[in-house]
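On clarity, I found the account of how folds are encoded harder to follow than it need be. Since the whole study asks how a given chain folds, the encoding of that fold should be made plain. For the editor and my fellow referees, an illustration may be useful. An entry of this sort, consisting of the sequence and the corresponding backbone structure tokens, reads as follows:

:::
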Amino acid sequence: MKVLTALRDADRVLTQQAATRIPTTVGKVLSAVEEAAESTKLWCGAAVVMAAVGGSRGRAAAVVGVTAMSLAQLVSNGLGKQLTNRPRPPKQWFPHEEVEDRPDSSSFPSGHTAAAVAFTAAVASIWPAAGAVCALPAAMVALERVQSGAHYPSDVAAGAVIGLTGAELVRRAPRLVPHWRSRLAGHPGGRTVLTACGAVMGSGSK
């Protein structure tokens, strides 16, 4: 219980500091970046640019980035928010009007942060320079979610963990798929699953 109390206290203090100590001009820049990242527009645009100018490495980075981002969003928005019902930070903590423009869904976890971190981390595993470029707007999105009153810092931290996990799973997927394919192939039921998957993939490619 003491740990939870300490976490709640830290959430409150850090949220109020972000709301009151970040200059208005900086807040406007953060809001602009977050708006660009809304509905993953920023990351999808970055993926298009990487695929267009980065050759085979750029295309690979774009694919793993979008895949990891989609997985992170599924976990954070499709699962995490459905299992929790954490209220957003109190509006009276925030002296700006941005707090009025926030969703009514659960505050935990931060889907924006999960998507940003997943995309950035996955891209960095293929193309480190591109990942470094994406890291700045990703960090700005995470900070904006607290500064604007949309999330507590712990929501953002949870979103970052989901994003990093999604990126790691996507990075490991090429090694995991052959492993499980061989495991399934050695079992009668597994062979049936593989046959069915192959049929589905074949019909979908027509």
